[in-house]
Amino acid sequence: MLISSVLKTIDPGMTCFTRISLPLRKNFSVESTRALLSLQSNEKKLRAQAQSKGRFLIYHNKRLKPLMSMGQPVWKSYEEIKPYINHDLEELRPFVLLSVEQNESISFAASTLSLSDKYVQNDSEHYTDLRASMFTIQDRNEAAIVTKGWSLLKWHKKTRYCGYCGSSELIRSLDGHKIDCTKCSEIFYPPTYPVGIVLITNDKNNKILLVNLHRHPPSLFSCVAGFTDVGETMESCVKREAEEEAGVEIRHIEYVKSQHWPFPTGSLMMGFKAQAVSEHFEIQPDEVKEARWFDIQEICNALDNHSECGFLLPPSGTIARTLIENWIYQVSNK
C-alpha cells in the first residue's frame, strides 16, 4: 500500500509530538468544568439537575456491559428509567456523574442493579462487551465517557467493605465519586493506575520495535507497556519495561499523549516515544512471545488490512495505534 494512502486516514490533529499534547474536546469549556464541580459539591442541585437534564447510560450489572444500539451508546432520560427506580433517585445509587456538556445535558452511568427486574431494553438495544464497544463508538469523546462510567461502576462493585476496618456500613456520595465508612470515618476515592507505554524506534527512525505478548491475540503486535512501580517516574517506567520485555536499552524518551484505559479497573496510559541504543533485542519469554522490527511499508500494509502481511496492529482508538500513526506521520512529513 502507498504510504500516501495511509496518511489520508490519519488525523493530523492527533499526531503532533509535543511536550504536552492535549486533543481538542468537543462540548468542553471552563463553564462546563465549573458546572461539574458545582454539581459534585451540591447533592440537592445534582438531584434536581439529574431529573431535568440527565441522560443515563445503563450497564448490565453482571459484567458491566453498556447498553448499545448499532455500535453506539444508548442514552436514556430520567423519565424513561423513572418507572423502574420506584420514583426515587436515591434508589439509583450507585449511579455516577460523568460529564456536563456545553448544551447543559448531564451524563450519568447506572447499573441494572439499581433498576427493577421489569426493565427491558428495546429489540434494537443490546448489552455489549466494553472492549468491543470501544472500537465501534464513532465519537472519541463519547467513548471516553463510556469507559469512565465502566471504571467508576466497577470500583463501586468491588468496594463493598471498608478497606481499613472491614465494615460494610458505607455511604456512597450521590455523584458516585466518593465512599465514606460510617464506622471508622475513612474516605475512599476511585483509584487511577498509571501505565507507561512506549513506541521504540531505531536510531535512523525508519523502523519500530513491536511485541506480541502471550496474552495478546495471535499475530497482534503492539508497543511495550506496563504498570508503574512505586517510586518510579513515567520515564523510568517505560525504560524498565523496554529492558524487561525486549532486552532493549532506550534513550531520548519523549512524552506524546495520554489516554484513560478502563482495564483492568481504570488505568491512565501515558504514551512515549523513545530511541533504541541498538537494534539488538532479547525477549523475556515468560511474558513476550515474539518481538520484531517493522519498517514503515510493513506497518502501512497492516493498516490497510492486508492479510498477506502476516500480523495485526492495535485497533483504532487505542493509544498504541495513535503512537504508531504518529510515527508514520512524522517520518512521512520530514
TrEMBL record:
CDD domains: NUDIX_NADH_pyrophosphatase_Nudt13. One of its GO terms (molecular function) is metal ion binding. Pfam families: NUDIX. Residues 190-318 form the Nudix hydrolase domain. Its cofactor is Mg(2+). Gene3D superfamilies: 3.90.79.20, Nucleoside Triphosphate Pyrophosphohydrolase (3.90.79.10). Keywords: Hydrolase, Magnesium, Metal-binding, NAD. Its EC number is 3.6.1.22. PROSITE patterns: NUDIX, NUDIX_BOX. Signal peptide: none annotated. NCBIfam families: PRK00241.1. This is NAD(+) diphosphatase.
